[in-house]
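Fold this complex.
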Amino acid sequence: MRHRRLRRVRNRRAVLVIAVCAIAAAPLAAQAAQSPAPPAAAPPSPLSTAVVALGLRDPSLDAGVVRGGEVVLARGFEVELARLLVRRLGAHLARFVELRPAARIVAGGASSWQLGLAGIEPSPQGRATGVLSDPYLTTDAAVVLRRHLPRPRSIADLRGHVLCAVRGGDEARAIATVVRPKAAPLLATGLDRLREQLRTGACDVAVVPAVDTGRFLRGHGAELGPAAGRIPSGRGFVVAVARGGGLDVTAVNAVLQQMRNDGTLGRLARTWLGLDPASLRVLR
Amino acid sequence: MTVAPALGGTVARHGQVWFVRDGEPVAVSRTAPAMPGLLRALLAGPTRAERAKGLRSAIPAGTDVRELTIARRVVTVDLGGRFAAGRDEASLTSRVGQLVRTFRAVPGVVGVRIRVEGGVPVGLFPGYDLRRTIRAPLASRSAPSLRDTQQLLADLGFMARTGVTGRPGDETSVAVLAFEKWTGMPRDGVLGAAVVKALARATRPEPVRRAPGKRVELLLDRQVALAIVNDRVERVFHISSGSSGRTPTGSFHVYRKERLSWSVPFSVWMPWASYFTGGIAFHEYSYVPAYPASHGCVRMMARDAPLMYAFATTGTPVDVLRGRA
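Structure:
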């Protein structure tokens, strides 16, 4: 009886959620239908305060305490980047909010925030919408060696070694499609297991996400070899800029470029990620 | 500290609070009138005597408690922002473990919800999803499972990957024995605490000599044979060579292979025999002790001998070395 009542309540909730989603999506869909091409760039209104959306998930990138949708005690690479970005855009950071899942940031539409920094790695279509900035952090695959292994100078130098990566990740795909080693790679269940394989010498070269390389090596420098380079993917994390939020992507890109040039991005990466992925040599 | 009325009835006269020693959780007894007292004892950290014994608390000093409630046998503790201070991941994980272990040790408590500054910590404490009720702390790393240890032995080349089963057995013992021989530990084949500790910092064996291609190194002092491909040790085998220096040292090649060889002088069958000098061969034998015991041949376990037979094809170089020096 109780179960049946529970099920009925759950069903009602599901119907309600679907209805709310449909109502919310309708104006967006209509808007999309009316304007298939991105709207002509309107002169951005001056931004005085900014609300930044985060997709909390990682102590190095962005983490915090969520209270009623607002992020208090926020910290991490993206948090610091957002603070600096907003300041250099001439605005005042009002607050951080959490947006789950982060993919909703890219969906666009009316939003209660002006900038989104949530580890957004856009598809080419996403980038074409004109609301995403240039990458501020590369998501290439980094190459970490076991101890005493000579540094590779090219991807071809990796082919004779036993490679390893986390199963199902982009790095495992990079091994299969870009490196194409002679021996079958070892696939680990997680970064801890991958580190163990590299430490023991079960594999010679671990291919890890560039953003996680600092953490992968932290505290294990004596057991592992160095990060010797990265396999370029051309992708990276980008800033989402809300439409009609008083900012345009060009201004954000300009500030990001300035931060790249003056070393701010590299310094933030070294502080929060332990290593600046952009400083790794590109292997070709 | 705000304490919900429901908590007043939860009395824990002799409770445990958890600290850490060398990163591992350690329980100590405390006499506290109720759960808030236990929490206060935990936040106060180890006593001077306990500190002298190496106990530490990962919870930052000065962390305040905003609220402590219990409902449906789940403790909810709301702490000040200092609880999330610092960026050392091990410390952040440990402090959540300390809280969870301390509350879970109270009879009747089934879970712990942790709040910081009245909100839900997200992504701050690696390994824990604090959006949910925590029922158990993360497992300690000092006591790896048998499967983990077997996996390590396989990663290091002391065992075949097929031996990673999570079940104890002869294959694991032989791999442990080979590891003990390699590292110079007492040779008993027992997976004890010393072996587990040594495995945790071990790296794959390196060959003595450098040369391209496939070859075998036989280290008489350690009583192991290394199967090497392009200077990478693929496998380390537990062997027993000739007693009283009957196995000659030098550089040889496998020159004859017999799936089942008959030893004329000793009237015994030697399966999976790979001869590399005179009448000296790698072969299977029923008894492979941890010391040199043969008449000169290299005895191998029944599971390992076919692997060496397949590896050491005719012409494969075999370096018999007295030791690594």
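The helical segments of chain B are 5-8, 35-44, 48-52, 89-104, 146-155, 170-183, 193-200, 305-311.
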